[in-house]
Write the structure tokens for this entry.
Amino acid sequence: MSDTIVQFLDDRAYYVASSSSSHGWVTPAGIIPVIIAGALFLWLLQALPAIGNGETLRFVWSWVPSLGVNVSFVIDGLSLMFGLLITGIGALVMLYSAKYLAGHKQQARFSLMLTSFMLAMLGVVMADNLLALFVFWELTTITSYLLIGFNHDSAKSRRSALQALLVTGIGGLALLAAAILIGNVAGTFELSEIRAMDNVLVQSALYLPILILVLLAAFTKSAQMPFHFWLPNAMAAPTPVSAYLHSATMVKAGIYLMARTHSSLSGTDIWLWTLTIAGAATMVFASVIALRQTDLKQALAYTTLMALGALTLLLANDGGYAITAAVTFLMVHSFYKAALFLVVGILDHQTGTRETTKLFGLGRAMPLTAAAAALAGLSMAGIPPFLGFMAKELSYAGSLEVGSSPVLVAGAFLAASALMFAIAGIVGFRPFFSKAGTPMQGIKEAKWPMLLGPVILALLGTFFGLFPAVLAAYLVNPTVAAILGVTGEAKTLQLWAGFNLPLVLSLLTFVIGYLIYAFATPLRAFLVRLGDRSPSFDRGWDKLLAGVLSGAKWQTRVIQTGQLRFYIMVTFITTLVALAGTMVMRPSVILPVDLSSIGVTDWLVFGLVLLGTVLTIVTQSRITAIVGLGTVGIGIALIFVLYSAPDVAITQLLVETLVVVLFATAALRLPALGAEPLKTRWFDAVVAGGMGVTVTLILLMVTTGPIDRSLTDFFEASSYPDAFGQNIVNVILVDFRALDTFGEIAVVLVAAIGIFALLRSKPGKDEA
Amino acid sequence: MEPLLSILIGILVAGSVYLMLARNLMRFLFGLILLSNAANLSIFVSGRMTPGAPPLVPDGMDVPPEVVANALPQALVLTAIVIGFGLFAFALILAVRAYRSLGTLNTDEMRVAEPKEQG
Amino acid sequence: MKSIILIAGSRLLVALFTVFAVYMLLRGHNQPGGGFIGGLLAAVGFVIYAIACGTEGARQALRFRPTDIAAVGLGMALFAGVMAAFFSDAFFTGQWLFINATPEDKGIPLSSVLIFDVGVFLVVFGSVLAIVFALEEEV
Amino acid sequence: MSWYLSLPLILPFTTAIICYLLRDRPVGAWISVIGSALGLVAAITLMALVLENGVVAGQMGTWPAPFGITLVADLLSAVMVLITAITALAVAIYALSDVDARHGQLGYHALFQVLIAGVTGAFLTGDLFNLYVWFEVMLIASFGLLILNGGKEQIDGGVKYVALNLVSTILFLTGIGLLYGQTGTLNFADLALKVDDVENKALLTVIAMMFMVAFSVKAAAFPLFFWLPAAYHTPSFSVSAVFAGLLTKVGVYALMRTFTLVFDHDVGYTHTILLWVACFTMVTGVLGAAAQSDFRKILSFHIISQIGYMILGLAIYTPLAIVGAVFYLVHHIIVKANLFLIAGISERLTGGSDVFKIGGLYRASPFLAVLFLIPAFSLAGFPPLSGFWAKYIIVKASLDEGLWVVAFISLAVGLMTIYSMTKIWAEAFWKDHPKGFEPTLSTLPGRRALLVPVVGLALLTMVIGLMPEPFVIFAERSAEQLLDPTEYITAVLGADAVPAAEITEVAP
Amino acid sequence: MTPETFLDGAILVSFVLIALSLAIAFLRLTLGPTLADRVVALDMMTTLIIAVCGAVAVQTAVTAFLDVAIVLALVGFLATVALARYAERRDPLDEAHADD
Amino acid sequence: MIEIVIGVLLLIGSFFALVAAIGIFRLPDVLMRMHASTKAGTLGSSLILIGAAVYFAEGVTTTRVVATIVFLMLTAPIAAHMLGRAAARNYKKGTKTTD
Amino acid sequence: MNMFILNIALAVIWAALWGSPTLLMLGSGYVLGFLTLWFAAPVFGLQDSYFLRSWRIVRLILFFLYELVMSSIRVAWDVMTPNDNSTPAILDMPLDVTSDFEILLVTNLISLTPGTLSLDVSDDRKTLTFHAMYADDPQAVIDDLKNGMERLVREVFE
Ligand code: NA
Ligand code: NA
């Protein structure tokens, strides 16, 4: 490891190196990601004709074949659409960021994380192997975490990052479980193979758990109620991140997952109703909250929630209209929402604020920004001839054909679209064109790298509104086919579909939407009052975390008490329960106990040890206890003497003597024993007695059974002839089992070293 | 003798557990000694007991002429005694050192590594 | 707490203990005894000396640091095991050399096993002394 | 053959002796590094041998099994020895900077090498009593390291550590005596055979429980883990790293060895209990971590939690589950040791270990940040790091057996692990230092020795994560060996020893 | 009565007497009252065990027990010295309470 | 015949052992008790050991027994002195002084 | 010279312990003894007065054994008879022997003989404190010891 590397990677050093070029934006850190994203975009673009023709491309690299995990990618309509959005918007956002963060001392890290995210996200939508998909899924979670916390010195950022991580983390784990179950049911992790098996999942006994797990993953990632709350908080990230991750791409990973598994999991009531209810609830709830916001970014965040709800709601169905609508809406939303986020970022960057109450009439100062905002806003508002209009029409059409409750679904769409209309005005129109307040002075138009993104995105919404057939042919139709698993279901994208119910609903949308826009301020005040009284999921999450944390603390206080006595008690009780409990669960008989061979010396020894033990226990005097221990030691040595173990007896005596010596010497430095409070000792006595009885019973069972002496027979036979020693015990120690002895003397040596160190340690800083 | 010794071991275990559950670290150490002894005796008794016949090969013979005590458990016990001594010595000196450092032998009051106010 | 009687006695005891300890060590392969017992006995002798004359005197008498003696002992024991490698045997295979061996009598045995036991002796001796000295010198 | 098995033991002992005799000179630390490097070579050689020849057994003193002591390496043993050697080398290098001359004089390097020898011995031995001896070698060395040059905290933690470990040791010893009394043998392979002939199987189960309790203390399983959080945050960082990496794993290894090879007669009872133990261990450990704010205390409780995963693998007792346990074992040693090493660097840079009272590391060094994130996210089970595969296999094994609750618990515990790791990350790395000072890595004295092992271990984590296939295949083969002991028994006792019934025996 | 049976009887009687002695010594050990009393009792017990070793050696015709006796003679001394030193060093005024 | 000698030695030895034990039990203070244990105890054990030496009647064993007795007689008084000195301090402080 | 004697003595003890007084055993015992002495050399204060007078030794041993038996019988009598006729006291006796070994011998022998128990030797080695069981006439007890045991010991080492 060379010092220069450390230095290079050291932030301060790096910052010094990079600050010289901090005024320009054409730095490696700024440009390389753009090049990568652009190249990937172009590469995907060239696959468009093939996919348009209904082909799919598949690449397989074997990764962990023994676990059935491959890195396999498939490019069909769905993944290509997502891939183009990811790389295309990615390239624009990265270009934008190159300027937005130019000179920021952590720009390089930012670029690295953002690029990593893009690649991970690309992996999610291209992966054919479910586990590979999971791997990329989790990578998006991690990179998202790091990006949300990019302003890491702010506690709010850190909290938001953690919240996002944990909520999507729950989903990630659910996805892992789902993947395993699906793999078990289908026998493969390859999604294309699973799709090819007709209804293999739906008919499986594990369908319900699989579905729940998959939806948990999708709902958390795509912020469906009740997991929505992390998304607005994620706006703590720099604006390019919000634009890219939290509106255009990552949050749609959940949508992608539902779309991807649509043909394998949908078609059941539970799929239909779960998605419908979650989608509708999210959509309506988010649109109401959106109106409450004064921060433009927050308002956009809630409309993103709304869009995600709408997409979920549409994916609940398997009708052609609904799915076509979903695909179209997904794309258009990505265009206009990314554009608007970037616009808000420009406003923030140039004016220093994102508050609707401060931003008015900037159209003159920032004409290009205003134009992009207006175009994107019109698309969002669903006004013809923008692509947003078509998406809305299809959505209404789709909602009218749902299997659940057309009135309810259409109603929800109506409410949401109207609010979307209003917010499009608030974000895309008012800051630039409203005369309701005085415009800020000295505001300049942003530089082109920042403008390029919103302008292109806004123009795309317009372009495809005018020429929907292009989009339909190359992307919408293949995507719908990929989702539904059958071709030809896609409905036509058209501006004029005749005077029908969807059109009526559209018109109604504009009227209501305008009213909301006009009365936005009083409405907001009312909603804020309402909101203060309503339960907040965000606060609920905090409470949940705090609850878990205080539960954890309580548990730790109860278990890890810091009291040695408690630890020992639990250890002994555990032992007692394990042994005595097993003796109850697995009873066995004690063979008859032979008491005839007990002689007078045996009783002598018994008495000696017993009395020594009792003396040690009852005395309040240290030295009496030590003497009592000595008695026990002598008694035990006597057992070894009487039962033919002279070596052991000698060793026991020597060791016991040393123990007494050490105790007596140590006692010179230690305080008197003192009495133990007897109140709690009865329980100790019960545990102790239980242990004693248990051990005795086990020993009786062992010793009344037969004994296999084959090892000893060998030692007796070989000791002298082969090992040249008459003391069999010693021969075992130094020859047959010399390794034991070697370890044993190592213990003795290390004990000495340890003790020496213990006593010679500096009576350090913290000692009295 | 095995049954009597089994009972004796039980008594040693009970006594040692009772001592180890005391607050005073010295009593814990007393209990430790007793428990070590009980464990050694368990091994010894598990190998069965033979009086008056140490496992020695008499001079001029290749193997013991008659039944001698089971040598293997004796070797194991011997090893265990010495190891136990090493461990005990360390524990005892640790107690001395703990008293010097912490000013108490009452384990309830030994709360430096895991202070009371912690979570 | 100096005791002239004990000091006088301990000087004699050190020698007696040491001789007896070595005796127990060497005969351990055939009679009760061996490295542990020998090492413990030798250590006990010096412990008595340390109690009588103080650890400073005992350390001087010992000349080497007790833990060094023990470490060398462990090295010897290890060497006794590794020796087998020179004779292409497994770790800790006993290597025997019988001096003056006749058909009836095996003669004087020299063996790696003895080296091992001496190692055990030294480890036990050194370690016990290190422990006792350290404790004696505490406070 | 037997020298290949002995060498991983001989080397650390030799190094320890030399280090101790030269303890007053600064070269001790370097001798420790050289010795560890040689140990690694020996471990790699052994691994190569086992990979080529299958289970390798050697008889110490050339006395035939089951009479003499057997050293035996199956794949599990070999990989544990290898990973021990890797950890040892990493920590020995780290110690060049982390351990000062004072510690060296008190015998740090010798104690460390003996610890490694003890751990290695425990992994290699094929004899129950010999296992006890190595446990004690390891234990006494850990005692010494734990209190080395210690202040109040270390002594206090040491008291609890010593007390509880001694209790477990004595239980283990008693269990050995009882098992010998019932079977008349100590050799694992022989035990595996003799246990089948034992008439009183109920009593055998009782004795098995004794071993379970004893090893569970060593492994820090619920509810016997108290000693670990009481002590692991107190010694020097290199010490706690090697403790965190290796010590509890020896307990897990012992559980895996005995409860596959010997005590497989009442799996429905013993392994069900292990299953409960595993779940409670995972949960209490991870909750304990959530309650902590000290860098090392958090990590300590996570050791417990992850021990739960390993025991879970053993408890489920299917081939895949054992694969998971083996994989987890290997992964966790690398990752956990590394995190403790990083904790040491963090303390040096920030001057504290309470994550709420330190900060600024991310700003200070993105390099260190990456080095932390790799093991931290690996520990949390994020793909594509080593921990992911470990977690995946365990979860899959539980789901395969329909153990929904167990799978749920392991996943939830994974989530809580993420929480703890991000707590460290957010507080120590992201947050600015509350006292305002800005740590710098590039001027830290001795940083090379501190960073080399961290980088090395992080790379290993990445390699396992990105190229898990050989490791999974390895774990599969070692699981096969564990569940069908024929190869093990044949290697130790010879082909004749295995009765026909045992050969055809199929793991449940 | 043959000499052999006399010897057997004598051994048995010796055992009984020594056992009795041990019991009495233990009583003193328990009663104290001073530390020195207890140590005297313990020392006495050590000496008695030496006697037991001698008797067992005769009973079993195994000389190995005499080795135990010799070791006991050696180390019993150490224990007594250590305890005596404890008794002497301990300041009775400082620790006059519960301890001894 | 030699059995009789051995038996008598054992009996006398154990008698003295008992005397010593009763002595340390009955005599009024610790110094008096030490008289009993030092003298009668040592003699008792020694006689029993001599009995064993006679029983085995071989050079090595006799050497060992003699060594044991010498050890005993060397150490027992030293131990008694150590203990007696400690006891005497309290003795002087407490009950009576002589000179 | 002194060392040489001690060394020979150790070699003899060594050979005796092995029970084989062969030249080999004596030789090895000598070597071992040499090593032991070298090892323990600082232990020995190298006083002179180490000259063996065997007949005086024998006389001392016999006298001592007689006293030991007598004292034990005396103790036995006192223990067995219920009345307490002892008059215990702690006495000081001037000490003429000077070397370590002599002091050791004197104090040990006094302890093992009737009615007396050595307690301490003063730091200047001039006074022996002992406990006497029958100190009706303290001076008589002291004189007895001086003329008996101490004289015999002194003569051995003269
Ligand atoms: Na089996
Ligand atoms: Na089996």
Chain A has a mean pLDDT of 85. Chain A has 33 helices and two strands.
